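Continuing the batch. This is chain 6 of the set; chains 1 through 5 are on the previous pages. Same settings as before, nothing changed between runs. Recording input and output for traceability.
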Amino acid sequence: MNKIKKLILPVLVLTLSGGLIFSVYEVFQKADIIYSQQKEIKNLTEENKALIGKVDDLSTQLDELDKRLDEQIKNAEKIVEQADKEKKALEKEVKEKDAIIQQKDNKIAEVEAMKADKKAKEATARTMEASPKAKEETKTLPSEPSGGKVLYMESTAYSSDPADTLGGGTITATGQNLLQNPMAVAVDPNVIPLGTKLYVEGYGEAYAVDTGGAIKGNIVDVHFPTYAQCVQWGRRTVKVTILG
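Output for chain 6:
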């Protein structure tokens, strides 16, 4: 463009009037402006293409990241699902083991109750042989009934005998007179309701008619007429059958 101007401009100066020369010069100025603008547009177009290329690259990268993220989420879901299955399997195994342990504990309690009952009977036999009075006070226990819910519980004894400093008097919580009917069992009403008929191994049939401050949870307190019988009973594990 500059070379053309250099060739044409002197000729126009020599042959044309001043006003025409000025108009042609303006044309060349505008031509320069247009050329510069076209060049700038070309540059902007190239920059735009470069930016579009970068945007395309970023879009491709984002698509790849989305795919990877989806795969990671799916893998995480599989891991969580597997962990949940393993957790349920462990919980099932723990429950089964707890059931086995409970069965073993019940069996051990049953054996201990049998041993304690055997020792009590042996002690009673020795006492009866040594003391005629004790023989008279000891009653023949009825045979153990069949059926009914069975519990293995700790057992203590109390008495209405004045010699028993821990005795609870002669009237039970339900109004039974222990002097008239000494066969009574103190219970925790939250475990065995008052009025329930029971068979306590080594003691016999009696009703749950009394309570006590120390009788809480898995324990029964059987009543005897004399303090000596309470001492002989001691503390033991017994088999308790719910009769009704």
